[in-house]
Amino acid sequence: MDVVLLVKAAVMGVVEGLTEFLPISSTGHLILAGTLLGFHDEKAKVFDIAIQTGAILAVILVYWQKIRSTLAGLGSEPEARRFTLNVAVAFVPAVVLGLALGKMIQDNLFTPVVVATTFIIGGFVILWAEKRAPGAVRIQEAEDMRWPDALKLGLVQCLALVPGTSRSGATIIGGMLLGLSRKAATDFSFYLAIPTLIGAGAYSLIKERGQLSVADLPMFGVGLLFSFVSAWLCVRWLLRYISSHSFTPFAYYRIVFGVVVLLTSWTGWVQWSH
Fold it and tell me: Is 274 a domain residue?
């Protein structure tokens, strides 16, 4: 296996792990990083989705005690069943719309203008959400959600089908606008990511299995490993960060990043071909 290719896989894994759970869009960063590295062919697109599994394993590790207690209580605890139902309800809209619109979105919306625009709009939405009145919070913990709240959050997650939106950004900020505390929105976003990203990765690998071979295993293994480690560090940091900080810095980052993407596209400095 080409060492240079493995280094590229490691870099892409780090980019995925660091950006998947922050409200800054992993897709937009992977597109730009892949273009700069010359890692943007059809196999690379499958790779980008598959290495999300590494990031999800990090979330499972961080939340393992909660996940284990929930699974253990499904047969006897109404709270565990309600929480599991909420995750399932929130997961369904992304499955339905993803299968129905995924091909069209990939063919038409993966452009620098669309990515940059959603980055910038998302930044202003975060600023707006962070300025809402404290009294707007009605759900302090993710476990206190009801299924209508979960359905609304699942519909909001579908906005992330548009590249540059950010799945975590849509669910966290959307949750805050729907009345969840910053902690509740962040926690539920992580729980919802588990079936969403595992499902997306499995679907992509099955659908595109004809493009893959045993020789690709080292590349995917390196990407998964670096995605896992960087995501584990990022999630642990983010959970500490939100206890005393807002998402406002990410909003400004999104706006600046969006402007940079537009400039690189218009000047031809980076040729987006993902």
Answer: no
